[in-house]
Amino acid sequence: MKMICFFLVVLVTINTSLLSQTAWFEQQTGYGLYKSINSLYFINPQEGIICGGFGVFARTTNGGINWIQFSTNENNHYTSISFINNYTGWVSGGYYDYTNTIELLRKTTDGGLTWDSLYFEPTGRMNDIQFLDNSTGFMAGYYLKKTTNGGLNWFVIDDYMSIFGNYHLFFLNSMTGWAAKLYAAPQANTFINKLVKTTNGGQNWITQICDSNTINNSIEGIHFINENTGFIALVHFGIKKTTDGGNNWISVFNTQSCYDIKFINDNTGWAGSYADILMTTNCGINWGELFVSQNCTFSTINFINELTGWAGGGSGTFPKLFKTTNGGSVYIKNISSEIPEKHSLFQNYPNPFNPVTRIRYALPRSSNVKLTVIDALGREIETLVNESQSPGTYEAVFDASRLSSGVYYYRLTTEGYSETRKMVVLK
Fold it and tell me: Can you count the helices (H) and strands (E) in the chain?
């Protein structure tokens, strides 16, 4: 059979409690050179917003397949999105043109269809925002600020003489929140990284982390599940976890830079890194590295449930956006320029294997595809693919670390075609 160009999908085991492997697909935003996606938010599976540097600001109504770009100035650099319901949300950032630097804030009350210019202040830019309701919101920028009238007016709630910039924040409720600060003096090889906490709505702050380094180890993401359990994502030293409200922190992942962290429930969360999306299903005890895209820094992640989510960032040249519809632990992409003549399911290789094998299949036309792993009793134990896919040749990687030695089967099912092959796990 004629060899068809194919690619390698890399899957790393999350942990033994994760039973299904799934796919990430790249989506096109229509933005070109030197753009980036800094933040994204989906109201529901179809409607979402992205924003980023050099005027990236767009809306989708079909799950990210197509994006409607808002007319905006490329000197507007958007950084953060916050919604309180399906209709009301804000996007923040800064305007700078090498002369002026201005905080900016825009608001929607119709789910992102239209946006009002709400607030301008010549003191820098809004690096991060979070609104808790229609009135109360917090902002991290040159200052830490608070609004009690929906963003029309803001007042400083932190030391305005501080040498620290404010970059990220997370509020659990109107009283309890955390903010990440950074003092950077690269010429002196001095970087001071802080995490501060308030329990009275920003009236007072206490320092929980004060870390001085010769390299930038800034906190790029904060997420708390409850008042005790929380996580921070760090540029150089991965992910740290607290179980006492931020007083003490332990490292739970330390091999890569991390830029965002989000949890959908008490156990399941994702983090954005360089070239990887990380995932945990046991409250951050273990993290699996999910290879998704070379040369992409994932700076923002948003899941609307345990299955459907998006991850965005930039490659240094182009913005990048990826989507999963079943949890996000495998990246699958068709890069073959040749359409196969017929459906094919190839023998896995290596076989027997321990613990990883590759499964390749070919599609002559667009199809709804399901690729599953079955045990000797005929039970489906893994779903590797469950998506509509275009014609081409694909390869998935199956990690059988959690399985015992024995005979298993894998089955490809598409419209009008089904085939099953045998494979052997040998440990």
Answer: 0, 35
Q: State the total domains in the chain.
A: 2
* Spatial separation of the C-alpha atoms in residues 308 and 380, rounded to whole Å: 21
Beta-ladder partners of 193: 182, 211
Whether 267 and 357 share a structural domain: no
Give the number of other CB atoms < 10 A from CB of residue 419.
Answer: 14
Using DSSP bridges, classify how beta strands 269-273 and 276-280 pair: parallel, antiparallel or unpaired: antiparallel
Rounded CA gap, 147 and 154, in Å?
5
Neighbours of 61 (CB within 10 A): 15
**Which one-letter DSSP state was computed for residue 238?**
E
Are 313 and 351 part of one and the same domain? no
Cβ 170 vs Cβ 194: under 8 Å: no
Question: What is the SS3 assignment for 400?
Answer: coil
Here the CATH number for the domain that contains residue 380 is 2.60.40.1930
User: Residue 86: pLDDT above 90?
Assistant: yes
Residues 308, 408, single domain; the answer is: no
Neighbours of 165 (CB within 10 A): 17
360 in the same domain as 284: no
Confidence tier at 53 by pLDDT (50, 70, 90) = very high
Query: Whole-prediction pTM value?
Result: 0.76
Residue 11 pLDDT > 50: no
Tell me how far apart the alpha carbons of residues 32 and 53 are, in angstroms, rounded to a whole number: 11
Shared domain check, 138 and 176: yes
* Local confidence band at 334 (pLDDT 50, 70, 90 cut-offs): low
| Residue 7 domain flag | no
**What pLDDT is recorded for position 17?**
30
Question: Which CATH number fits the domain that encloses residue 153?
Answer: 2.130.10.10
User: Cβ distance 224 to 172 under 8 Å?
Assistant: yes
Nearest by Cα to 95 from 126, 64, 116: 126
Q: Mark whether 64 and 92 lie in a shared domain.
A: yes
Tell me the CA end-to-end span of the chain in Å, nearest whole number: 32
Angle at 376 between CA 373 and CA 377, to 5 degrees: 100
- Alpha-carbon gap, residue 390 to 393, rounded angstroms: 9
Q: State residue 120's pLDDT score.
A: 82
In the predicted structure, residue 352 carries a pLDDT above the cut 80: yes
- Same domain (yes/no): 165, 107: yes
* Residue found by looking up tokens 């014609």 in the block: 391
Domain range spanning residue 112?
24-324
Look up residue 384 and give its two tokens: 């590797």
Confidence of residue 126 (pLDDT cuts 50, 70, 90): very high
Which residues, in sequence order, are bridge partners of residue 170? 178
